[in-house]
Amino acid sequence: MKKTITFIAALVLAFGPNALAEERNYVTGVFGYDQLRDALVLNREWVPFPAYTDRAGWDALTGEFKQDIIVKGEEYLDFEWRVVKMTDYLELEKSGSRSAMEVPFGANIVAIASLFYAELAEGEGRFVPQIMNGVIHTCEMTSWSLSAHLVTIGPDRRPLPMKGDTTMDHMHGDISQMFSWIYYYLHGEFDKIHPEISRRLKGELVARELNPYLSRTDFWWMGFDPGYVLNNWNPWCNANALLSFMLIEDDLDRLARGVWKSMWSVDQYFNRIQGDGGIEEGPSYWTPSAGRLFEYLSVIKLATGGKVDLFGIGLVKGMGEYIVNSYMGDGWVVNFADASARGGAGNLNLIYRFGKALGSSTMMGYAARERDAHPFVPASGSTDVFDFLNSLMIQPEFKSASGEYATPDYTWYPETQFHYSRGSAGFYLAAKGGYNDESHNHNDVGNFILYLDSRPVLIDVGVGNYTYKTFSPQRYEIWSMQSNYHNLPLINGVAQRNGENYRASDVRSSRTSFSADIAGAYPEEASVKSWVRSYSFGGNSLSISDSFELKEAKAANQINFMIWGEVDTSVPGQVKIDAGARELILKYDAKVFDAVSETIALDDSSFREVWGEKVCRLSLNAKSMQRNGVYKYVISTRSASK
């Protein structure tokens, strides 16, 4: 009992003052540390998958995918393990490239995962020697963290790993989870070759994952510092840690402490995120945020024999259903922040399993509807073993599931301030309020995306390839992060500023309209007192207005629109936009504005994969300076000219 009290007291002292959005404490609120200790399912009896020697069980689990999984593993039987050179790490400082380090590192990890799944499927020991090679090769590495993360949470904030460092990023956690499963399933097979292999593997997991997770409190994603905004790293890293403890740790005291700490840390995530379930990072980050939270909650339920079951909480359901509400069709999603517009349908097996746990017919129906168009491919080399095996387990049920889903006509996330609404004539609008310190933030308060027949036309271009600069103090030097490359005004020649204080006010949403005063997103030099950006559907058109009052007029305002499609500004007062089968017409007051279009060539591969070679920025340049007024623009559609 004394150890328990000392441990809890140490946690409380370390956490310091509380600056949380709301103390929900969903996980630790179920019961206390001593109750958790008594509830834990020990000796890996919680594992829902077959034993390694249960060949009938594995044949049933892998089903029709067994041979595909084995063939994928065979591709790596002669794989030459890649050395991640010091110059690969340092390339981040030299050129900003992350890929120099991540490509060879990732190739090794994909090889290990593919070999491991093949061995589980076949069970004859054929893949064990090469798995052993990959595991020990990785154990010889100084760090399992990425160079891009060493510069932010490493000991000297540089990309080179340092001997003895225990930096824990999400890649480190992914490897720890996978290696914990490998130890659980194959340590007996390793021992047939040499007992040092298993001893080394378990020793590395204890030294790299379990011990630092118990002892360190300085990683921002844990939530000890109340000043940090928590994002997908929290459930991601905690799910990996929880699985590692439950698979590796035999000492009950250490196991209970590790599980309890994960519960406390995930509660900080619950306490600091918006309560409406909106994922401010966008759909691309749904799997590492909501999806990993689902994984964490699934494991904690198994680990406690069902005593910790949080799938009835409204916030969890909101987070789950966010991904299906954000899907426009044909692979397109609502992509605010760093998310990609070409987000795909998502991990359908995960969505279905999450929906089943929640009792969400919305999620299950969506997954069933999209299933045939996006078939399950199991041999992906995923490091998330828990997700991979559960995806195999759910296949017989999922394949026979039926359901329907249609994107809702109207969705409103009042805390995240995301607005989605359907108009007539194939229009769909996504707009946002928010603030300019959100996770993976762009300076985009008041921005909107307009879809025509599920295809984005007025767009959020998203983010290019991640480089050192992307997450550095120079982030907002990147053009795609700036408000003047979103569908927003440049006020008095000044763009929005990044920071927590730069936010929308008086945000309003209804079935057919959205408005926000975005003046607060601009710095003092913009001299703006109020700027109400409004969107409303009427008939077959979208009306946009900017009602503004400036403290002084110092420069002509500029209204920017980012467009995917050919633009024709030859007729004053209207802009023709080629949207494929139909044209969009954007009408403006030619007495107030001059229209200028600018082609933006895309040389970044991430941009090109989504938009092709170019996008367009349309700028409506005010002909005069005004201290107050109302600008209006109307967007309608018609069949494309032949």
Please give a structural write-up.
38% of the residues lie in helices and 18% in strands. With 642 residues, the chain is α+β, with helices and mostly antiparallel strands. An eight-stranded antiparallel beta sheet has the order 11-12-13-14-21-18-17-16, with no helix packed on it. Strands 3-4-5-7-8 form a five-stranded antiparallel beta sheet, with no helix packed on it. A hairpin with a 2-residue loop joins strand 7 and strand 8. It starts with a helix and ends with a strand.
Please identify the oligomeric state: single chain
Strand content: 15-25%
Average pLDDT value? 94
Gap between N and C termini: 81 Å
Structure annotation, total helices: 18
**In order across it, which strands form the biggest sheet?**
11-12-13-14-21-18-17-16
Largest beta-sheet characterization: 8 strands, antiparallel
Give the strand tally.
Answer: 21
Helix content: 25-40%
> Unreliable segments (pLDDT under 50, ≥5 consecutive)?
1-20
Anisotropy-based shape = elongated
Alpha-carbon Rg, integer = 26 Å
By helix and strand content, what is the structural category? alpha+beta
